[in-house]
Amino acid sequence: MKKIALFGATGTVGSRVLLEALRRGHEVTAVVRDPARLPDPGSGSGAGALVVVRGDVLDPVSVAAAVAGHDVVVSAFGPGRGDPTDLVTAARALIGAVRSLGTDGPAPRVVVVGGAGTLRTPGGPLVLDEAGVPAAVLALMHAHGAALDFLRGVPVEQVRWTCLSPPAHLAPGKRTGTYRLGSDDLVVDEEGRSRISVEDFAVALVDEVERDAHAGRRFTVAH
């Protein structure tokens, strides 16, 4: 059982991560700006325990207060219609908060939901370099890339960080509990499709929380 501090729990990905972690019996602290927006996990949430606290992933002081005493910090934060560069601000706040906790006991690990833009297409360019990407989406991809660049500059001996990038297509669907792993290339099926349900993406993320298999690295998953 892990004690998890979860940012972004009201979003599409974060809400599924919350349910997946609870169903596996983990203790989750959902750190949200507006607790009223957090959906009720319901009776299918399993044996886990949920605590809801008010906080802001863009505020380093707020983050430091929220993550103390946890085993793993998970960020499923997304800027929505806001400034894409908030992704970099959030990454800096998370790493800074963990560093600020000092050396009294093991520091929390950090697992961040990244973007698909910096993954390489099969035999081709990065996703963000493909033709026809809308400007707003491209800005978000570049911001995810900048956040990943920042994380890659953090020595894993200081903070055990991991970034999980989604495939090209991520949408709500069924939980199968299965997925395939990749590193810096899109994972595609026999027909060249790169996709996964949000539910199985959450499975992969909570698997990483439990296994710590990709410390200091980015990885990706798909069906």
TrEMBL record:
This is 3-beta hydroxysteroid dehydrogenase. The lineage of its organism: Bacteria, Bacillati, Actinomycetota, Actinomycetes, Kitasatosporales. It comes from the Bacteria. InterPro entries: NAD(P)-bd_dom, NAD(P)-bd_dom_sf, Polyketide_Oxido-like. Pfam families: NAD_binding_10. Residues 8-208 form the NAD(P)-binding domain. CDD domains: BVR-B_like_SDR_a. PANTHER family: FLAVIN REDUCTASE (NADPH). It comes from Streptomyces venezuelae. One of its GO terms (molecular function) is oxidoreductase activity, acting on the CH-NH group of donors, NAD or NADP as acceptor.
